[in-house]
Structure formats: C-alpha cells, structure tokens
UniProtKB/TrEMBL annotation:
ATP binds at residue 71. Keywords: ATP-binding, Kinase, Nucleotide-binding, Serine/threonine-protein kinase, Transferase. Residues 43-330 form the Protein kinase domain. InterPro entries: CR_Ser/Thr_kinase, Kinase-like_dom_sf, Prot_kinase_dom, Protein_kinase_ATP_BS, Ser/Thr_kinase_AS. The gene is LOC100782320. It holds the Pfam family Pkinase. Belongs to the protein kinase superfamily. This is Protein kinase domain-containing protein. It comes from Glycine max. PROSITE patterns: PROTEIN_KINASE_ATP, PROTEIN_KINASE_DOM, PROTEIN_KINASE_ST. One of its GO terms (molecular function) is ATP binding.
Length: 383
C-alpha cells in the first residue's frame, strides 16, 4: 500500500521529545499541541464543526496554510502511546478515494489528536438528512454516486486492507462530503483490526442507535457483517432522505427499516423514495437499491452479502435476487425481547451493565456498553 510521503514524514517538531514516540512512529507527521491549539484559535467553539462518541472536531488552519479537520479525542477514547501509534501507523498507509485522509496526529502528555483533510460539505447527517438546513441539492445521480462510493470504501476496508478493518460505526454523520459531493468514510482510524476469516467477540460495543446489527448489539459479536447491516440502514436513508428513526412521524412510519420491509411486502417500495426529488429518479434503480438495503439488514449475518457483492449489485454487475431477501432485524423485535427478558430476570440493570450514551448529531446517539446489555434497554434510555 502507498503512503503519503509529503504528508507523513518524521518531524523535528517539539512533539518528538519522547523516546517512546520516536520508537513507535513511522511515516506519520507529528504536530505539537501548541500548533493545533493555534490552528483552531485555542479550540474556539466558533471553529467546532462536529462532536461524536470519539470526541470533538474543529476546523483549523495549519501553519502551511492548509485547512484541516482536527479531532480531539475524548478521555474515554485515549489509549496508551504504543497502542495509539500502532493504529495511527496502520491508517497512515491506507489510501482510497472514499476514505478520509490522515495528515498526522498529536501525542503529547494526555492529548490524543488526529488531523484530517477538511471536507467542504460536512456530513450526510447535516446535509441530506439535516432537515433542509443547507443549500445543497442531492439529485438522483448524486445519491447513486454516494451510495456506490461508500460501498467501495467499506469494501476496501473489509477485503483489501490487511488485516481487515471493521469500522463498527457506519452512519450518516461518519460519511463526509468533499466539494464535488464525493463521499469519504471517517472515523475508521479508531476501528479495531481483525485477522482474516476470524470472528471477534468484543468486550465493548461501539455503535449508533438504529444502525446496530442485532448480533453485535446484544452479544457483542463483531464481524464485517455488522458493518454491512449498518450500511444497509444508511442506504435506505440516502434513498428516502430521512433518518432511520423519526418519532415525529406516525407510529407505523417511525422506523425506516420497518417501513421499508412493509412497503417491500406490498410491492410499493417506490413510495419510500425522497419526495424532494419530485419524481426525477430512476424508479427501477431506486427499488433495486432498497432491495439491496434489505439484503444487507437481514437478521442472520450469514445471509448478508459481502461488501464487494454489494458494490457489484449497486453498479449493475450482479443481479439482485429477490428470493434471497428475508425479514430484517427490526427495532420492535428488540423491544419485545426486552419485555421477555425483564420478565425472566430480576437483575438490576445498574449492577449488571455499564453504559454511556452521548449525542453525536441531531438524529442518533453513540453508545458504548457492556455486552450483557440488551439493545432494547439502550433504545429506551436514548429516546
């Protein structure tokens, strides 16, 4: 894989005073805390452009004039120096059109800061799904480009990077857009690596309400198929122009995935397409994309296609087999599960699990919780 020689170079900066950092860094540009503080005008709230489970993001201008997105990791996200640098070294070697680029990082005292390229059009959550608070218009061609681009970026992480990378938090707020509305997946730098053909059972679940695969949400079982489930939800969001959960809608329409399945059974999938397109879209292609969304969100992980297969289906190089579509894992099913489990167990949730919920944008919540916690319990706490 190709590195970025102009961006990732060993530096004589004051940040390089720690022998442990000197030993652990390879091909990554180091910034001092002072440099990044100056770039963001002392991390001014006026320069804050986002906040998520991993920390806050600021727009900053570096000393060379380059505009960057500067992510200050939260205390919960901080790792030891060696662990942090190991992950940074891995992602510094990853380059793909649909992944954000890492300029460098800061590892100074307790500070853990990542420096990325700045993307002019923010995220899908703040534009396409942001409730009309922007001037961008997403026509059908642009939506197709975004769907295919995200799929290609995720397929690259899943199947071409060695060892494979599971993102663990694919969602609209982690899909950033450049000046041409080309999608870039962010936050994969904090993803955990898994060996090829291995199943990893995580001790902590990182993910976002509405996007979590059932096997990951309930049991902490993390494979690439959990990302594919999240992508399926995102795909439906892009086509419909609405977020996956909207409590302002009638009860039967509040959960996007349930609505998609209902319309599929009635052979009326086209009704889900965003009305802001004013009918200017390819109906056959839209229904195909929504069927792919359902293939990705099937309850059994084994039934979900690989991301390379998803790319082929989205681009017309592989047919979508309707007979393989089964009912997706739905939020209402998890709510029923919670009721049954509460009847069977008298364990106090405060003693049996620990979890945190923090707002990451205007329509979802980012969570990290013990694997014994049920998705339904988290759902009730987050609404």
């Amino acid at each position: 894989m190709t590195c970025f020689p102009l961006l990732f170079s060993k530096s004589s900066s004051s940040a390089r005073h720690d022998p442990e950092i000197d030993e652990g860094i390879h091909n990554v540009k180091l910034y001092s805390y002072k440099q990044l503080r100056n770039a963001t005008e002392k991390f001014s709230p006026a320069n804050k452009i986002g906040e998520g489970g991993f920390g806050s993001v600021y727009k900053g201008r570096l000393k060379d004039g380059k505009v960057a997105a500067i992510k200050v990791l939260s205390a919960e996200s901080r790792q030891g120096v060696k662990e942090f640098l190991t992950e940074i070294n891995v992602i510094s070697e990853i380059e793909h059109e649909n992944l954000v680029k890492l300029y460098g990082c800061c590892v100074e005292k307790n500070n853990r800061i990542l420096v990325y390229n700045y993307l002019e059009n923010n995220s899908l959550s703040q534009t396409l799904l942001g409730g009309g608070h922007n001037s961008l218009y997403f026509d059908w061609g642009t939506r197709c480009k975004i769907c295919i681009g995200v799929a290609r970026g995720l397929a690259y992480l899943h199947e071409e990077v060695r060892p494979h990378i599971v993102h663990r938090d694919i969602k609209a707020s982690n899909i950033l857009l450049d000046k041409d509305l080309t999608p870039k997946i962010s936050d994969f730098g904090l993803a955990k690596l898994i060996p090829a053909n291995m199943t990893h059972v995580s001790t902590r679940v990182a993910g976002t309400l509405g996007y979590l695969a059932p096997e990951y949400a309930i049991g902490g079982k993390l494979t690439r198929k959990a990302d594919i489930y999240s992508f399926g939800v995102l795909l439906a969001e892009i086509i419909s122009g609405r977020c996956n959960i909207n409590s302002r809608l009638p009860i039967e329409e509040q959960f996007l995935l349930e609505r998609t399945w209902d319309l599929y059974e009635r052979k009326e999938l086209v009704e889900l397409v965003d009305i802001s397109l004013n009918g200017e879209f390819d109906a056959e292609q839209a229904c195909k994309f929504l069927k792919i969304s359902l293939l990705c969100t099937q309850e059994s992980p084994k039934l979900r296609p690989s991301m390379s297969s998803v790319v082929k289906m989205l681009t017309g190089k592989m047919d979508v087999n309707d007979s393989k579509i089964t009912k997706p894992a739905l939020i209402s099913d998890f709510m029923d599960l919670k009721v049954r489990r509460n009847e069977e167990s008298s364990i106090d949730m405060k003693n049996s699990s620990m979890y945190t919920t923090s707002s990451s944008d205007n329509h979802d919540s980012t969570m990290s919780f013990a694997t014994t916690t049920t998705f339904a319990a988290i759902y009730d706490e987050s609404m």
